[in-house]
Amino acid sequence: MWRGVRAVLGIAVAATLASTVAAPPSASAAAGKAAAVNCKKVKCIALTFDDGPSPYTGALLDTLRSNKVKVTFFVVGRQVEKRPSVVRRMVREGHEVGNHTWDHTRLTDALDGEIVSELSSTQEAVHEAAGIRPKLMRPPFGATDQRVRAAVQTAGLPLVLWTGSTRDWELRNTKAITRKALSLVRPNGVILMHDIVPETVKAMPGILSELRKRDYHVVTVSSVLGDRKLEAGEQYPS
Ligand SMILES: [Zn+2]
Q1: In the annotation, is 194 catalytic?
Q2: Domains in the chain, CATH or no CATH each
């Protein structure tokens, strides 16, 4: 019965969408809720910012808000504990928050129990700060192996790596970071940056303006995934 009702509703919604294709962005986007972007149909790029929240994250959030784009932050638990209001703001403004461990630990060097507690303490810190629990994690340094993936599975999270790394922590130069970031852009890519690098935060207005010229939608990792549901312990991109 419910399936049938849902199917009928689905048709009604599809018909409504078809008749309002040229409509301007909905009010929900302005309210900070992520506007639905279909990354199978338009060019999407997921920008991800690791290791914060930092003293520079607020300025980055200002830039993201004025450009009306949503990104993914992979936060470190002990930084969340220091700056809970920044994490609360990320969530309120429609960004995605992922888990980047408590201490930025190289998980391939950690015991199984340590991996689980690094993740669960960060889950709780984010929940305490912002009322949500992350649904994605990123291993520090991208360091994973079969054992780490099994431990992360126990913690109930999928692993998200990247398709391109700006190496912004090494470049430390706004122009070089801009050039590198733009060179990594491709449809449904996942770009690694750091909101602890002030030059990255300074580079963002220019990067976003160039992405707009190239018709890219800047989105969260979950938007790039779309309908695809990652299993706990699964690694993306594989
Ligand atoms: Zn990191």
Answers
A1: yes
A2: 28-236 (3.20.20.370)
